Amino acid sequence: MEKVLCPKCGEIIFEEPECKANGIITCDKCNNKIRWICDGKRTITKLDT
């Protein structure tokens, strides 16, 4: 799987999420909440507003 990156600052949130997982995590570098989803092939991230 792809690394989960912060869409605002590019910081690596964590590497290799498991297949078909999702969640919300806070970026340590810029403190934005990031919503991410992995469908087993691609990892998509966006700011959680």
Strand order of the main beta sheet, please? 3-4-5
C-alpha Rg, in Å? Answer: 10 Å
Q: How much helicity do the residues have?
A: under 10%
Q: What is the tally of beta strands?
A: 5
Work out the count of structural domains: 1
Tell me the layout of helices and strands:
Layout: E1 4-5, E2 12-14, E3 21-26, E4 33-38, E5 43-47
Antiparallel strand pairs: 1-2, 3-4, 4-5
Outline the structure in words.
The protein is mostly beta strands. The protein has one domain. About 0% of the residues lie in helices and about 45% in strands. The chain contains no helices and 5 strands. The protein has a 3-stranded antiparallel sheet, with no helix packed on it. Strands 1-2 form a two-stranded antiparallel sheet. Strand 3 (about 20-25) and strand 4 (about 35-40) form a beta hairpin. It is globular, with a radius of gyration of 10 Å.
Question: Concise description?
Answer:
The chain is an all-beta fold and 49 residues long. The chain is built from no helices and five strands.
Key words describing this protein structure:
mainly beta; Mu-like prophage protein Com; single chain; two-stranded antiparallel sheet; 49 residues
